Amino acid sequence: MKAPVWYLIARIDLTGSSTSFYRAELITQALNYLNDWWLVGTDYTRHWMATGSLWSADQADMTNYYIRMGVIGGLPLLFLFIALFWKAYQLLGRRMRTMRATRDRSELTLWCVGVTLAAYNVTLISVTLFDQSYVFLCLALGAVPGITKAVAVAKRPESARQENEVEPHIVSHAI
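Given the sequence above, the corresponding structure tokens read:
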């Protein structure tokens, strides 16, 4: 194979009607035009691909969410987006290692959240989120800190939990 590694996407064609070559070519064009969008993104991507989008004369069809994030906010936004996933995996991994060290086998919930994030990572290569679908990605990413903290608090001894808990009436006034 003489093409770059992301052209492996183009080789996946289960039904004979795949747009996987377009997705691979979009990555190539995003790298070719990196100087147009790397700092703060761009409003014009029509010249990236031979076909554009039906809804805009200025845009190519962004079928890769990572590239879409780069087009919206440049490399800073793209790296922050990737860093969110990195930190989520880091939190999950630390909590799961702690649970394994103490021979606690109730890590299924953490594992499921990690698998959900991994599924998003793969899916976002070929899908751009829009409308309400953002909510599910935000929910999965936002669940990680809360669920890792909840598992940690649930596994502490009762005496340690009572010392660190906040008074319920204080929390209700803060909200």
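Residues 53 and 90 are 37 Å apart (CA to CA). Try to locate this feature in the token string yourself.
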